[in-house]
Specification:
By secondary structure, this protein is an alpha/beta fold. About 40% of the residues lie in helices and about 20% in strands. The protein contains 5 helices and 5 strands; from the N terminus they run βαβαβαβαβα.
């Protein structure tokens, strides 16, 4: 069941993309997945709305750099960061720039659901 909200996922790790897609689909949510920030920028309109779940560290354009671009473009996307390399400075930076959450891998399903609720993406 599509909820009418756009959910996007960017992670360079195919296993993370697959697992998160499966989890989100189990909630009745549809998600568009991308292997890189560059791929996302090429395929998604700059005026897109919804929720973007993105990895902090990726080859090429990082999640932090993508957030900077989105903020500069006055994007209306809600951001949820995920990372295997938690860093207090990164967490502070992304939250101060407006991100909903900064979650550490492996992602706790209940915490992700709470972040998605806060973003207005589901439930």
């Amino acid at each position: 069941m599509k909820n009418g909200k756009n959910i996007y996922l960017i992670d360079d790790d195919a296993s993370v993309r697959k697992a998160l897609r499966r989890f989100l689909n189990s909630l009745g949510l549809q998600v568009d997945i991308f292997a890189s920030a560059e791929d996302f920028l090429e395929r998604v309109s700059s005026d897109a709305t919804g929720c973007l779940i993105l990895d902090v560290r990726m080859p090429g354009l990082s999640g932090l750099e993508l957030q900077d671009r989105l903020v500069a473009a006055h994007s209306r996307l809600s951001l949820i960061f995920i990372t295997a390399f938690a860093n207090p400075q990164d967490r502070k930076r992304v939250i101060q720039a407006g991100a909903i959450a900064y979650l550490t891998k492996p992602i706790d399903d209940k915490i992700l659901m709470g972040a998605l609720q806060e973003a207005g993406a589901c439930l």
